[in-house]
Amino acid sequence: MTRKLPQLNTLNPYESTLPFKNGHIDTIIPALFRKNHHVKYERFRIITRDDDFLDLDFSINKNKKNSKLIILSHGLESSSNANYIKGMIKLFEKNDFDALAWNCRGCSGETNLKEFYYHSGFTQDLDEVINYAQNIDQYSEIYLIGFSMGGNLTLKYLGEKSKHISSKIKRACVFSTP
């Protein structure tokens, strides 16, 4: 017996929230004009297993009861200072989360020590960031968000660790993965 799949025409069509009635323009306008200058980071540097470093930018919510952490992974050639990263941090701050936006090697404004940087399959650095975050006793829940290449890293990490993933990691969300 075969299962009948829903027809595509049963889905709700896209409705614009901006005065422009085009989904492409709705995507481009915020990318060009949304500025998130009010995110304040506290930077921590961790030393990697291969004696290099990663810079982690924390945005600590003022709610002292907070036990939830979002880990954001940026896209190719980006950083924790990208508007889309800061926009997500602002959103989650309003919802009582702390946020950790980590920078891939060479993306934090300082050249790393090793002769290589990063690539879309190099999950070792994300693993180190997650291990670091898991060891912060204050967080009982960790959520992963990845954009583009960072989304690819997030999904690959979850696949690699699927049988041994920390119980602190509750959910993951990725955008525009290659």
Structural summary, described in words:
The protein is of the alpha/beta class. The chain has a single domain (38-175), classed as Alpha/Beta hydrolase fold, catalytic domain (Rossmann fold), CATH 3.40.50.1820. Helices cover 26% and strands 22% of the residues. It contains four helices and six strands; from the N terminus they run H-E-E-E-H-E-H-E-H-E. Helix 4 links the parallel strand 5 and strand 6 (169-175).
| Percentage of residues assigned to helices | 25-40%
Provide the CATH architecture: 3-Layer(aba) Sandwich
Number of helices: 4
Percentage of β-strand residues: 15-25%
The sequence of SSEs as H and E is HEEEHEHEHE
Q: Spans of 5+ residues with little confidence (pLDDT < 50)?
A: none
Looking at this protein, list some descriptive labels:
4 helices; 26% helix; six-stranded mixed beta sheet; 178 residues; alpha/beta; Rossmann fold
What would a concise description of this structure say?
This protein is 26% helix and 22% strand. By secondary structure, it is of the alpha/beta class.
SSE layout and pairing:
Elements: H1 23-33, E1 42-47, E2 53-59, E3 68-73, H2 83-94, E4 98-103, H3 124-134, E5 141-147, H4 149-160, E6 169-175
Parallel strand pairs: 3-4, 3-5, 5-6
Antiparallel strand pairs: 1-2, 2-4
